Amino acid sequence: MQEFSVLLYYIYSPIENVVEYRDIHHQFCLDNELLGRIIVAPEGLNGTVSGTKENCEAYMKWVKSDPRFTTIDFKVEKHEGHAFKKLYVRIKKEIVHSELPVDPRIQTGKHLEPAEFKQMLNDEDVVLVDMRSNYEHNVGRFKGAVTFDMENLRELPDHMHEIEHLKNKKVITYCTGGIKCEKASAYLLQQGFENVYQLHGGIIKYGLEEGGENFDGKCYVFDGRLTTDVNKVNPEVISTCHVCGEKCDRMVNCANPECNEHMPMCEKCGEEMEGACSAECKEHPKKRPYDGTGYYQKDKTGYKPEIAARTRKNTKKLHIVEKLGLCE
């Protein structure tokens, strides 16, 4: 039986030729049977990729061979197969959509390696701040962490008043893989916080290197697994089934695509509700077939998974995209 891996990574490093690089990167993934979601932006790379252990190792070596990405940090998890059903390599304006007026290459919070982070947890002057969306920290978070009721990082400025009183504390930000904290911690510094740190490599790296102690629940991930185990020391389930209220850390997306709510749901309720969050969603005419996982690949209308020769019209269009820094 073949071994598979799931890779999580990002790097802030300028990419001038985003259209050309996107095509080269996409073709390498196709040639090496890799699946996942990768963002190419003028500010850098961000991706989650799955494939055989051998193909993932070839991918990591290939990415790091580019002088722009030699310092990239890959988080590697074992898996029983592909964590994705398709491959997308897309051009975006940012590698994580934030719209925050910061550049983490100029200023960002001090990086803490997992071992340093674990040691600082014993400091009474430390406050942990979760920079993820509400549905993510609802299923898993560090003990005592400050959380925000926000859908995405763009909303962070609206929640700054909630932590204004912590400016004299040592603030450590954290997220899934570290990418959001690069900009979030930079924004905190811009807003007058002085002692700002971030967990380098995020929750995933902390789990891999330090056993995940004091992380309650599971970590939400953006692939077919939906959640992954982090804490091997003192795990605790903190979320409850959306339907029956029993303790449950099994996440699903509502089968109604017009709802698509992220929520915990036990297997029994998942079967009874056919993956829907409510009776209304269960009867919705567009409800997707429930396969027991609650994971549905996003429909990227117009996206071509294979790279073919581009027409002059398409080439011109993509170079306009590159120039403006818009989504493909």
UniProtKB/TrEMBL annotation:
Instruction: From the Swiss-Prot or TrEMBL record, give the protein name.
Output: tRNA uridine(34) hydroxylase
**Under the GO molecular function aspect, what terms does this record hold?**
oxidoreductase activity, acting on paired donors, with incorporation or reduction of molecular oxygen; transferase activity
The gene name on file is trhO
Keywords per UniProt = Oxidoreductase, Transferase, tRNA processing
The UniProt family comment states: Belongs to the TrhO family.
Q: Which reaction does it catalyse?
A: uridine(34) in tRNA + AH2 + O2 = 5-hydroxyuridine(34) in tRNA + A + H2O
Check the record and name the SUPFAM superfamilies matching this protein: Rhodanese/Cell cycle control phosphatase
Q: What does this protein do?
A: Catalyzes oxygen-dependent 5-hydroxyuridine (ho5U) modification at position 34 in tRNAs.
Documented EC number(s): 1.14.-.-
Main EC class the enzyme belongs to = oxidoreductase
Superkingdom classification of source: Bacteria
The GO biological-process annotations, alphabetized, read as: tRNA modification
Species this protein is from:
Jiulongibacter sediminis
Residue ranges of domain Rhodanese in the record? 122-215
